[in-house]
Amino acid sequence: MNKQWVLATGNKGKVKEMSELLNSFSIDVLPQSHFDVSEVAETGTTFVENAIIKARHAAKVTGLPAIADDSGLEVDFLSGQPGIYSSRFAGENATDQDNIDLLLSRLKGVGEAQRNARFQCVLVYMRHELDPTPIICQGTWEGTITDKENGENGFGYDPIFWVESDQCSSAQLTKQRKSELSHRGKALTLLVEKLKVQLGQ
Ligand SMILES: O=P(O)(O)OP(=O)(O)OP(=O)(O)OC[C@H]1O[C@@H](n2cnc3c(O)ncnc32)[C@H](O)[C@@H]1O
Ligand SMILES: [Mg+2]
């Protein structure tokens, strides 16, 4: 049987974006739902802390190595909000749509030149729950916030994140193109390189 790792996220969009690259190792990287890992409170004040909290929790529950993603959207006009609170911007049980609606309302009337934003992604790999040297990789993606939603792909804030290079929203990119450009794609490429070294591949 192949070795198993746990992907410490409850977000199906992240699982889709991360599975392919991670499964290029001879290891089965399975989402935490496969092991009945519950959600854990994200009590950190940085993406790094929250990613460690999630990876540690999943490693503890499963006894397996774990990879976690903590990510979010920083909007300059809002002094970096929603940041680490991106998934709960409109409240603890907010849907992606609730968060988009709130963000658009906060930016109502704000001109294009002031709508700069970036996605941040921190990935953490822990060999076990007490791993004192987790691997930490980061990626960012610059864009602007539109005033209307466009596209059906992706998740979260993708329909309102304008990608200048491709003249479309992030939700109008294919999965492959989003991975080439995105915060998560960049962090994942770095992580895979480091894991290859660690695994001697
Ligand atoms: O904590 P887990 O279980 O991984 O799932 P989550 O959705 O709660 O994930 P985060 O706590 O890291 O919150 C990140 C939020 O930032 C947003 N986000 C992150 N990456 C994104 C992307 O590629 N496209 C659109 N929105 C994204 C989206 O709203 C996410 O819910
Ligand atoms: Mg979360």
UniProtKB/TrEMBL annotation:
It catalyses: dITP + H2O = dIMP + diphosphate + H(+); ITP + H2O = IMP + diphosphate + H(+); XTP + H2O = XMP + diphosphate + H(+). InterPro entries: dITP/XTP_pyrophosphatase, ITPase-like_fam, RdgB/HAM1. Gene3D superfamilies: 3.90.950.10. Its cofactor is Mg(2+). It is an enzyme of class 3 (hydrolase). The active site is at D70 (proton acceptor). It comes from the Bacteria. This is dITP/XTP pyrophosphatase.
